[in-house]
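Sync notes, pocket subgroup
Present: LS, DG
LS reminded everyone that the earlier model was apo-only. Rerun requested with zinc ion included. Inputs:
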Amino acid sequence: MKLNEHIFRANDIRGIAYEDLNEQVVSLLGRSLGSEALSRDIKDLIIGRDARVSSPEIMEWLSSGILSTGCNVIDIGIVTSPMFYHSTFELAASSGVVITGSHNPAEYNGFKIVFKNQSTSSDEILLLRERIINKDFQLGQGKLDKVDIKESYINRIVKSVQLNKALDISIDCGNGAAGVVAKEVYEKLGCNVIELYGNPDGLFPNHHPDPSKKENMLDLIDSVAKNNSTVGLAFDGDADRLGVISPSGEMIYPDRQMILFSRQVLESNPGASVVFDVKCSQLLSDEISRLKGNPLICKTGHTFIKQKIRETSAHLGGEMSGHIFFNDRWPGFDDGIYAGARMLEIIANSDDKNVFESVPNLVSTPEINIKATDDRKFQIVDQFIKHSNFENANMIDIDGIRVEFKKGWGLLRASNTSPFLVLRFEAETEEELAKIKEIFYLNLKEIEPETDRF
Ligand SMILES: [Zn+2]
């Protein structure tokens, strides 16, 4: 049997449906998951899935594998990843898996796994792989149940968030799983909602469901302008990430969203810790310190952030990719729709016409991706760290390298989820930004002579 080892990643399992994730591989994964669950005294696994074309078949294969171990399956149908996380807090079963390719291209799919309310670590994911290689499976006959968790999910949000006034908003579900619930949530909160692409369609016929890229936000920017919306909200394919458009049509990147969220969370929880990843603006860290909070920088990756939040009891966490984790009046999992509701709360409870004008901005680049193979990407970053010479700079090497100069910083890391190198730059002026980019470019070109200018 061909088992592509690259499907086992730092945060989850992901690959091309029907190739990496064929019937044999997925049912073995089900046997591995069921056996691992039983060995931890877990007798029921919840399974949810996104709206991808391959998801129903993958669900069949996975659940038949799990059932063959004697572990039970609770099918919650088409859900967002956060609805699945919610189900692990809502139902008696606190473990399970959501089948989703997140924001990856339509031919991909994958698995996010939770044991006892906690996302699996990279070591736990490797344990599942070991079980498959060693054929370390239990045998039995589990039973299959179906449960609908939509109503309890909507109630969880409506209980947590209160808007002081009704807002006119535009949302873009990008034909992803958000379409099953987002509009209803915001209407229950009292908003007038203009919805784009609300019907789940795994072929993503309108644009890709990845709100971190501007080209996917153009229709929403248009809708905000045309309808005079107070804000535009967008979600990735499984709705665990949020994108925000200001009333003037500006893309508000997640580190700037986090400045608003930090203000709100620190107001009710003085001195609280806030976790954010190495891609975030220096302004976020500065703002958390200014408000007497405790800024904590962390590796990129939703499981790393969750882990750090747990270790430090932080009240808030966020990633430049758009994963936002509230751990104050919400149980700590990332949810684009809920984060959107918290943004609406900030807007509705403020007297400002455009709350985003109060958020400072430096000159920065969005995330820059450079193609590199899964085999090479980590080596390139290691060589870059070893061979580069940065004078008068502070180096943070918890995840690739973030080099902080006096008037700006640059980052190079390997993506955990895709065959890419990731770069980002921020500085006080355009000139400083260009200088830092040039230093990174010249150093990278030494290692990879084919590198194009970025
Ligand atoms: Zn996602």
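DG: The first strand starts at residue 13 and ends at 16.
LS: The two ends are 41 Å apart (CA to CA).
Action: DG to write up.
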